[in-house]
Amino acid sequence: MNIFRLCGDMSHLAAIIILLLKMWKTRSVAGISGKSQILFATVFTARYLDLFTSFISIYNTCMKVFFIGTVYFTIYLIYMKFKATYDSNHDSFRVEFLIVPVGGLAFLVNHEFAPLEIIWTFSIYLESVAILPQLFMISKTGEAETITSHYLFALGSYRALYLCNWIYRYYAEGFFDLIAVVAGVVQTILYCDFFYLYITKVMKGKKISLPA
Amino acid sequence: CENNKPHDEL
């Protein structure tokens, strides 16, 4: 464990908590893409299959349980509890255009052609594009609530911090995982446009409103 | 460099 990865995990944790607070406090899921949350649930389920087979640390197990639990709770809030406030018309990204290529790529490019490894690789590739339905929804509605912007900033920062973690681990431990790094770079690049808007607008107290 | 077995990151 290193400071970059710890900050990354805390940023990821903060994003999930911010999202839950937004939903619970406003009793609304307006502006939140249910499809992205379903993709994140798929990512966590696929990645944490080893939850019961390989024990890394208490921290690792607790975080995995928390991530899986909260993402399914988020889906419950979107599609059941606050269903009336879910904006399905604007949440229209075709996720099959993500899942099929990512699934194919996981079969072709992985560290080891073994079931658990291919599923892990699938979760890494899927996570790098899982935010697209959410960013697509914001571009369609033309705006994002400030609290949603904070959620996205924390979520984008988490993988950017993981990139720093991988640089550190490369020099400190000789650790290098090309698949995770490439997917992490793609994932972070997808947020760049949003990071720019966040820093130039939200940090100055303005709201993010894209030219519709 | 070796990649991580088992995957020890979240």
TrEMBL record, chain A:
It is a multi-pass membrane protein. GO terms for cellular component: endoplasmic reticulum membrane. It is found in: Endoplasmic reticulum membrane. It comes from Mytilus galloprovincialis (Mediterranean mussel). This is ER lumen protein-retaining receptor. One of its GO terms (biological process) is vesicle-mediated transport. The chain crosses the membrane at residues 65-82, 94-113, 119-138, 174-199. The keyword RNA-binding does not apply. Keywords: Endoplasmic reticulum, ER-Golgi transport, Membrane, Protein transport, Receptor, Transmembrane, Transmembrane helix, Transport. Pfam families: ER_lumen_recept. GO terms for molecular function: ER retention sequence binding. The keyword Transmembrane applies. Belongs to the ERD2 family. PROSITE patterns: ER_LUMEN_RECEPTOR_2.
